[in-house]
Design goal:
Length: 197
C-alpha cells in the first residue's frame, strides 16, 4: 500500500534477552529482523527501521535512530520516525516490533480498512481481548499529540494516546499460533522454534 510507510521498532533495551541486539537473534535460520522485513515489506510502500544504527550492520533499509537520549519507552521510536525527514510522503505509518515474527500477511490491509471506515487516528490490533499497541497503524497527523505525550508529559508508552485519540480496535480472530507473539527472552525464542518445527 503506497500511502503507508512501515516502521520496525528495534530500539528497545532487550533486557530480558540479555543482549542489545535482539533483532539479530536467529529463528529458523534467519534473524528476527529479516523475518519481520519479509512479512511487513510487501504490505507497505516503504519500510524503515527504528534502531541504533550501530546494531543494524549493513542494511539496505533506512535506519532511524531515537532522537531522545536514554530509553524513554517504545513511544520514542514512533516519535523519532514521525519527526524524521526520512519517511516518505505517505499519510500513514504502520508500526510493528522486531520481535514479532508471526505478523499476519494481511495485517496492514485489515487495519487500514478499519481505520478509514472509522476515520480514526490510530488502528490497533486486539488479540484475545488484549490491545497490541506495537502492532498498530497511525495517521501521521498525530505527531503533535505524540510529541506532547513524550516530551511534555514524559510518558513513553502508547496507552495515553490510545485513550486520548480516536482509536479503533481490530479484534483479530484467534488462531492456533498467536500471530502477535513477542520474543522477549531466550525461552520465548526456543518456544518459537518449536512452533515452527
Amino acid at each position: 500500500m503506497n500511502d503507508i510507510d512501515g516502521l520496525i521498532l528495534a530500539g528497545g533495551r532487550s533486557k530480558r534477552m540479555g543482549c542489545d541486539d535482539k533483532l539479530k537473534s536467529i529463528l529458523h535460520g534467519k534473524t528476527l529482523l529479516e523475518i519481520v522485513i519479509e512479512r511487513l515489506g510487501p504490505q507497505v510502500g516503504e519500510l524503515f527501521i527504528n534502531a541504533n544504527p550501530d546494531l543494524c550492520g549493513e542494511q539496505s533499509l533506512t535506519v532511524i535512530a531515537d532522537k531522545v537520549e536514554g530509553f524513554q519507552g517504545p513511544l520514542t521510536g514512533l516519535w523519532s520516525a514521525l519527526k524524521s525527514d526520512r519517511l516518505s510522503d505517505a499519510s500513514y505509518l504502520m508500526m510493528v516490533p522486531c520481535d514479532g515474527p508471526f505478523i499476519p500477511k494481511n495485517l496492514v490491509a485489515e487495519l487500514y480498512q478499519s481505520m478509514v471506515k472509522n476515520r480514526a487516528d490510530i488502528a490497533c490490533v486486539r488479540y484475545q481481548g488484549f490491545a497490541q499497541p506495537t502492532f498498530s497503524l497511525w495517521h501521521k497527523r498525530v505527531l503533535p499529540a505524540v510529541e506532547e505525550t513524550l516530551l511534555v508529559k514524559k510518558m513513553g508508552g502508547f496507552k495515553p494516546l490510545l485513550a486520548g485519540l480516536n482509536t479503533v480496535y481490530l479484534d483479530w480472530p484467534e488462531q492456533p499460533l498467536n500471530p502477535f507473539f513477542n520474543i522477549n527472552s531466550p525461552e520465548d525464542l526456543a518456544a518459537a522454534e518449536l512452533l515452527l518445527a
